[in-house]
Amino acid sequence: MSSADLRDLYQQVIMDHNKKPRNFHEMDDANHFAHGNNPLCGDALVVYVKLTDGIIEDLSFQGSGCAISVASASLMTEALKGKTIEQAEHLYQQVHAQMTGEEFDANALGKLEVLSGVKEFPARVKCATLSWHTMHTAMDSDHDVSVTTE
Ligand code: ZN
Q1: Domain range spanning residue 100?
Q2: Does the global pTM surpass 0.90?
Q3: Distance from Cα 99 to the centre of ligand 1, integer Å
């Protein structure tokens, strides 16, 4: 994908997912959840995970934040539903790597490659990674935890 195409797609996808976030609700039967805060921007999200036998049976989020934080969380919930913990952790690392300019596995990312558009806005990388850090923390813990970006 050319960088101009990627930039267009980035803007379209971010706008679409911000306007109509997918899986944007609380989850009563979540067995893992965490609060994520990005004080630099004011993004505050809760990520809910329902893990069954090592598989993400359901994933949702709630909260408020800028367009990038909401869109990234929305894309994440779509991408991770039905995945194993290992697959989710692998994707988390690839997403993080592509946004911070490290090497990553583009095949694994698929649709999430669009998030690499945030690299052009370094101040927003923490907005885009917030939900992913929060998901990672939630899966590691069986009680409510808080994550704050630095
Ligand atoms: Zn933000």
Answers
A1: 3-148
A2: yes
A3: 14
